[in-house]
Design a protein that fits this description.
Blueprint (H helix, E strand, L loop, with lengths): L1 H14 L1 H8 L4 H10 L6 H22 L1
Helix pairs in contact: 1-2
């Protein structure tokens, strides 16, 4: 469930400038999780870790395709 919450948070932040500004002030994963929870999104540290790993895998794949 929390992975879908992270996806919802990202989609909402992309379309809502006020949410984007609220999250932009976060300086750590912990701050981001706390801010998101205060805003009603139930995300976890593991969600952020998984998203980061997927982003890295995509970037590696793109580099390998070019190289």
């Amino acid at each position: 469930m929390s992975w879908s919450e992270l996806e919802r948070l990202v989609e909402d932040a992309e379309s809502q400038g006020d949410l984007q500004r609220a999250l932009r002030h976060c300086r750590s994963r912990k701050e981001l999780i706390l801010a998101a929870r205060r805003l009603g999104y139930r995300i976890t540290r593991m969600d952020l870790q998984r998203a980061w790993q997927e982003e890295q895998a995509e970037a590696d794949g793109e580099r390998q395709a070019r190289g």
